[in-house]
Amino acid sequence: MLSLTSFEMTNPITASAPAKLILFGEHIVVYGEPAIATALDKRAYVTAITLDEKKIVVRSKNLGNEIEASFKEQTKDPVVRAAQVALEKTKANKGVQVEINSEIPVSVGLGSSASVSVATAAAILKLFSEKEPSKFEIMAVAHEAEKIAHGNPSGIDTAITTFGGTIFFKKGEIESLGAPQMEIVVGNTKVPRNTKEIVENVKKIIEDPRVAYNLFTISSIVRRAREALLRSNLTEIGHLMNKNQEFLRALGVSSVELEQLIQVAQQAGAYGAKLTGAGGGGCMIALTDSPEKIQDVLNKRGAEAFVVKTNQAGVRYE
Ligand code: PMV
To answer: What is the reported pLDDT for 304?
Structure first.
């Protein structure tokens, strides 16, 4: 068997990982309830290359910046953290430079940080190992990085970004759903929000019995949505999206801007619409059989709207 120091490193390694949408169950998933997420046709690409000096360099083509860090320092940057954990796991005796090139809009609920962390983990683990890492190994490294971005992440973002397709997720359980590929319109309110803050606000009220019932109701909506997805019943999926939105509103995670866009999409004939991700701003989604029309009405209401395809591939090497 080759030792870790003597194997031939293939340099550089590029990995990519998809953006994601939470279709049902955001927030309740933090409390061990189920949620459904799907991988999208927008990806983050990360290229890793070894450096002789034992340091980490992260270059972002999108942000046009460069960060330098050591193997052990405390960091607030999820990509640096992903690199540190991957380097520790592989017992790397060289440094690494990672270059990020992403098609995914940042901080709007499409999982850009999880995608970059997953692609970084995959690229570095392969760069310093004799064999290709398993998806579980990649997900575990990226989950450590997500703790920086999100505080107490449920793990759904890293799971869907790693495995791809459409998943029914509960903490500790990932079921790959044979769901249809759908076109979904995403409407970005362009209102910035902070996932960690919104998750903490929900935590403050979730013990209140007047709020706690929401958790159970959304949980039953998610289970019904799983069945509707398996049957490709778009009318039912849309109806359940509208229902999920009612209870997200009651949890206090919607916003005036999100509500306006959701209402516009519903009135224009969408099967259903809801916020996606943490809420408070960011994006809403609409399921429809006429995506261009819904995209157009959302744009006219000041959103930045675009159409995505669901059920795409998870992390892969390019
Ligand atoms: O806003 P996003 O895309 O990071 O989604 C957060 C999803 C939550 O359920 C609110 C939090 C979590 O960790 O699952």
So the answer is: 96
Mean pLDDT (whole number) for 171-181? 93
Query: How many CA atoms lie within 13 Å of 171's alpha carbon, on the beta-carbon side?
Result: 10
Ligand 1 atom closest to Cα of residue 146:
13
Distance 176 CA to ligand 1 centre (A): 19
Kindly name the residue from 157, 208, 289, 296 that is annotated as catalytic.
Answer: 157
Write out the two tokens for 143: 């989950």
What does pTM read for this prediction? Answer: 0.94
Question: Which ligand 1 atom lies nearest to the CA of residue 150?
Answer: 13
Those residues whose C-beta lies under 8 Å from the C-beta of residue 123, and which sit 6 or more positions away, are 13, 14, 15, 46, 47, 48, 98
Query: Could you give the CA distance from residue 17 to residue 279 in angstroms, rounded to a whole number?
Result: 23
- Inter-CA distances, 272 with 213, 215, 265, 298, Å: 23, 20, 8, 14
Residue 17's Cβ-side half-sphere holds a number of Cα atoms within 13 Å equal to: 30
Query: Which of 16, 60, 19 is closest to 157 using CA atoms?
Result: 19
Task: From 3, 6, 29, select the one nearest 251 (Cα to Cα).
Answer: 29
Active site residue 52: no
Share of the chain above pLDDT 70, in %: 97
Q: Please write the tens of the pLDDT for every residue from 64-98.
A: 899 999 999 999 999 999 999 999 999 999 999 99
